[in-house]
Design goal:
Helix content: 40-55%
Number of helices: 15
Radius of gyration: 21 Å
Shape: globular
Distance between the termini: 58 Å
Strand content: under 5%
Order of helices and strands: HHHHHHHEHHEEHHHHHH
Number of domains: 2
Oligomer: single chain
Amino acid sequence: TARTGTEIDKNIVRKKVHLRGFSSSNLEDYIKMFFKDEGCRTLVLNHLEANPNLSSLCSVPLFCWIIFKCFEHFHSAFDCQELPELTVTLTDIFLLMTEVHLNRVQKTNLLKKNSRSQEETYKSNKEKLFAISKLAHMGMQKSLFIFDQDEVLTDLSEQDLHLGFLRAVPNYGGCIDQSSYEFLHLTLQSFFTAFFLVMDEKVGAKELLQFFAECSVQDTTLSSCLPIAWLKNYHPTGGDPFRNNEHFHFTNLFLCGLLSKERQKLLRCLVPLTTIKKKRKIVFAYFFETMKSHLKGLTRARLKEYKQ
């Protein structure tokens, strides 16, 4: 298997190939295969249509399966009457996926109810989460996505590697003696980068907003700060389809999701509530100033009926 958006080694394919993944029609067909219940199927389709970032990630077949398994879990965890009121976000999916990985030592999965609450699971693994998040953040700052074994094992143990967040990259860069590692998916590294920005109390305003600034380097319009295009309208940014700053976009999305009031109950067992509120206030202030600047830059209509 291969991840979409990656360049295949020229030793395997002579031509430069861009893997497209699921199209809109492929996604609809897969939904019909996965969800037999028509009501549940309609609900999932509505969620995907309402959340372009979630649906764009479904273009990757593996992540599509993970997201659908999460939907299946939410469907079983809530009553049918409650589920339509539940908004499933990209952050929800990754928080649940992280919880499942952390519970691997207890041999639990989405199909079995876990005796521990989500808060207890995260609290008991606080040091591991911080170490993984620290590694992800370090890599994101340096645009580094492959890590040497020494970098990985600085704060993580061999046992932590079995959680499944990282996978070995054999013989990377000609290194046969020791393994290199990468996150299971680049989006997962973005998630843990955002997690670090929330967890680390030393992170100030400048560092917290760093990746918003990265998104504005090539395009300073408001739309460049967050949105990922809906699947059927997706076009890679820039001339080279293999180079984009989508990982920064996802980091910003996860940061907003983690700092939302809905995540406050979970995160306050990892970081003081005052710190969460302070960082949320910083992000709100950034959006306010960005929106104000954007509105000032709009062309004003010259109509006699309106006074400006």
